[in-house]
Amino acid sequence: MPSKITYAEGRLTVPADPEIPFIEGDGVGPELWRAAEPVLSAAAARTGRRISFLPVAAGLQALERTGEHLPRATLETLADRRVSIKGPLATPVGGGIRSLNVAIRQALDLYACVRPVSHVPGVPSPVREPGKVDMVVFRENTEDVYAGLEWPSGSPEAEALAGFLSERLGVSLRPGTALGLKPMTETASKRLVRAALRWAVAEGRPSVTLVHKGNIMKYTEGAFRRWGYEVAAEEFGGLTVPEAEAGPGERRIVIKDRIADNMFMQTLLRPAEYSVLAMPNLNGDYLSDALAAQTGGLGMAPGANIGDGVAVFEATHGTAPKYAGKDVANPSSLILSGALMLDHLGWRDAGDLVRAALRRAVADGFMTNDLARQIPGAAPCGTAAFGAEVLRRV
Ligand code: NAP
Is 111 a catalytic residue? Predict the structure, then answer.
């Protein structure tokens, strides 16, 4: 019988043989999981551990089997086992079910979306020096315009809200305005920045940059910036210093802030000056994909959704439906998310083994179509074959 991961007083206790739930996901999810799972199991075995992966249902497969996209039992298992990994889940645009990914993050209060972005040598990139990108995005995961508080044009809810805004706040809107809310709280903003600061301290990172659009959205994004500085000063005072007060060769973690549009430019022009980025939900979503593009695209971008005592690891990309079942999608994003999961279990040696094996496979010329198509004359390798090459090197 596999053992259970437990959590007490802010710490995970991880046995050498944990049971870890996985959601295969929709679209390319199942074939990516088939490539990634043996790599993660082998890295655990090589370092003296054993993972029992437990399949749990979500998405279209769950709908067929249980009549629900996200069965309650799945959420209970993810919460109970504390660490899990998932493939992408499809969400229709402009109607239909709400995003299952957002629902999982909200139900389990996985408040920090953590996306490390760095370049694997040999991976083609649209920028000249992708090796200068070494950033970790901490994106707030539960609030902002992702809270799901929006109402269609002409709906009774939108009309009622427009009426309230007009009568009580003197706000006049065009008839038939669709409305959405952007809630942001001190609690959620501070715990996200706290998580970013803890990571920066633990990993010896030189700076944390608060990315916001507070010049326009003063009381939401602007407050995020202020709350971020407060956490740094009040809880990490001796360890951090605001950029304006930092000296040459500063050894403390420098707290910077940048307006989001400028930050997009900074990441292209001066990437080496940034390390950990903390930001609200929507900006974080955009910027992590833009950063992923600099280091090879979504197929190379790992991620995790982390709360207090529960974490779900997942690739940054979606279901890539046009590639589903064709054995062409890149499994690296899921493999690297798995490596991040091994780190999270306290098995950094196993995580490093996976990253090193993947780097060697790429250095030896094995690449899926998303990368190979950018290199003249390069022959692409299929999803399964790439996974097998990484596995051989573990
Ligand atoms: P997507 O599935 O991430 O795909 C966008 C593009 O990124 C693909 O067309 C492909 O680019 C590239 N790509 C993504 N994953 C790749 C991989 N593993 N290997 C190679 N290339 C890859 O985004 P989308 O088309 O916007 O969304 C599709 C569905 O996924 C939607 O239902 C969306 O809601 C869902 N989604 C889920 C998650 C999640 O589960 N966390 C995240 C994002 C989106 P090229 O066309 O240039 O080859």
Answer: no
Rounded to whole angstroms, how far apart are CA atoms 386 and 32? 10
Q: Is the CB of 89 under 6 A from ligand 1?
A: yes
> Is 289 in a helix, a strand, or coil?
helix
Question: Whole-angstrom Cα distance, residue 69 to residue 57?
Answer: 8
Residue matched to tokens 């030896």:
364
The answer to whether the beta carbons of residues 146 and 102 sit under 8 Å apart is yes
**Is 256 tagged catalytic?**
no
CB 387 near ligand 1, within 6 Å: no
Rounded CA-CA distance 31/17 in Å is 25
Catalytic residue among 213, 256, 323, 370: 213
Taken as a whole, the chain contains a residue count of 394
User: Which residues make beta-bridge pairs with 256?
Assistant: 209
Sign of CA dihedral 286, 290, 292, 293: positive
Give 358's Cβ-side CA count (13 Å radius). Answer: 30
Q: Say if ligand 1 is within 6 A of residue 317 CB.
A: yes
Cβ-contact 41, 390 below 8 angstroms: no
Say how far apart CA 84 and CA 338 lie, in whole Å. 9
- Residue 216 half-sphere exposure toward CB, CA atoms < 13 A: 5
Q: Which two tokens stand for residue 223?
A: 């407050």
Question: What is the reported pLDDT for 100?
Answer: 87
The 10s digit of each residue's pLDDT in 268-313 is 999 999 999 999 999 999 999 999 999 988 889 899 999 999 999 9
Q: Does residue 91 line the site of ligand 1, with CB under 6 A? A: yes
Question: Which tens digit of pLDDT belongs to each residue from 206-229?
Answer: 999 999 999 999 999 999 999 999
What number of other Cβ atoms are within 10 A of residue 329's Cβ?
30
Give pLDDT tens digits for 76-111: 999 999 999 999 998 866 666 678 888 898 899 999
Q: Which of 123, 319, 333 to mutate to test the pocket of ligand 1 (most atoms within 8 A of CB)?
A: 319
- Please give the number of the atom of ligand 1 that sits closest to the Cα of 320: 2
Helix, strand and coil in the chain, % to nearest 5: 45, 15, 40
